[in-house]
Amino acid sequence: MTRFTKTIAAIATAATLGLGIAASSSTPAAAWGGGWGWGHHFGPAIGVGIGLGVLGAAAAASSYNYGSCYMTREAVRDVYGNFLYSRRVQVCD
Q1: Which of 47, 50, 73, 77 is most buried as measured by Cβ atoms within 10 A of its Cβ?
Q2: Is residue 51 part of a domain?
Q3: H-helix segments, 1-93
Q4: How many CA atoms lie within 13 A of 36 on its CB side?
Q5: For residue 89, is it within any domain?
Q6: Can you give the residue range of the structural domain that contains 14?
Q7: Model confidence over 11-34: pLDDT tens digits?
Q8: Alpha-carbon dihedral of residues 73, 79, 81, 85, nearest 10 degrees?
Q9: Predicted pLDDT of residue 36
Q10: What element of type H or E holds 34?
């Protein structure tokens, strides 16, 4: 991950945790079924849903390699030029 995407992921994680804590904290009105009109059961679900969405987006962003590197096979030969085996190497442009 680049420095920019790490920063964005850290900000998104902090925001998600903050929203999750805010959504799951109960107030006296939420304890009696008031609050946003949904009752007190949906607050933690909203926080968990947002958190999982951010984690999924961060995982997808970190697995994308932007096309600059790829894996290929390279032949390993002995001193006489005979093929011994092939190994995987990473080639970057």
Answers
A1: 47
A2: yes
A3: 3-24, 28-31, 43-63
A4: 11
A5: no
A6: 3-67
A7: 777 777 766 666 665 555 555 555
A8: -30
A9: 55
A10: none
The total number of structural domains that make up the chain: 1
Q: Are 87 and 74 in contact (CB under 8 A)?
A: yes
Q: Each residue of 41-88: pLDDT tens digit? A: 666 777 777 877 877 777 666 655 556 888 999 999 999 999 999 999
> Is 87 inside a domain boundary?
no
Query: With contact defined as beta carbons under 8 Å apart, do 1 and 61 qualify?
Result: yes
49 three-state secondary structure: helix
Q: Please state, as a whole number, how many other Cβ atoms lie within 10 Å of the Cβ of residue 43.
A: 21
User: pTM of this prediction?
Assistant: 0.30
One-letter identity of residue 9: A
Extended strands (E) in the chain: 69-77, 83-92
The pLDDT assigned to 89 comes to 93
Q: Are 40 and 33 in contact (CB under 8 A)?
A: yes
Q: Is residue 62 part of a domain?
A: yes
